[in-house]
Write a structure and sequence with these properties.
alpha+beta, six-stranded antiparallel sheet, 5 helices, 6 strands, 19% strand, rod-shaped, transmembrane, membrane, transmembrane helix, Mce-associated membrane protein
Amino acid sequence: MTKTTTRSRGSGSGSGTGRTMTAAARAAAKRAERGHREPDPAATDKETPGRPEASEVGRTVLIEPKGENGWDDPPEPSPESFEEDAPQREGEPGGPAAPTRHGRRRLLTTTLCVLLVAGLVAAALLGWRYREGARAEQARGQALAAARQAAPVVLSYDYRHLDRDFAAARARLTGHFRDEYAKTTTAVVGPTARKYHGVVKATVAAPTGGSPAASVISASADRAVVLLFVNQVTTSTQVSGSRVDLNRVRMTLTRTSDGWRVSAVDAL
């Protein structure tokens, strides 16, 4: 004889509640499987007819595993996905351009090298100017002394020993002026001095008790221009007694391997 089991209304209501909770758990599992998407209004928990709405506070939701083997674990993310999603940092290929530590160090090294080279060039230039200034100052004294010694020799002669006087004068000359002096003395000065017994004696004027009147107009390491006051006393058969000429002479001197030599003489 078959025993019929009769369920009360209360037990039927509990069974409905169990079915409702199972449906809600399955719906929640589906939402979790879809990546926490927005809940579907159609899959929400349906209230049991005739039962008042239960409070959400303190509700325990049981989630039954899907299938016999339980829930499938989600696939682990691949490294490529992290590389695609990760923002590119500064200095990385394809990222925003920014100076790296190596680049800043290279820039600093380049700047220091440029400053060092500039400092060396400036020091060399200053050193060169200092040496040139020292050589020019030394040249002033040497050229002035050479001009005082050369003026009486170059501007004097005696018809009784012209060859000796002209040779001594040429020894103190240089360049094109030496050639011009040789031509002039041979063609003009020598024949005229022999004919009229000419004698010219030149001296650099000097104040009483002072040094010869000569000064340097300009000077460099290898060239100098000197202004001299020269007195020439001339005697000849053409002149009664003697004649004194007060001359201002501008003499240019050039440094040579044999010392300072006269390269030009101009009467002012």
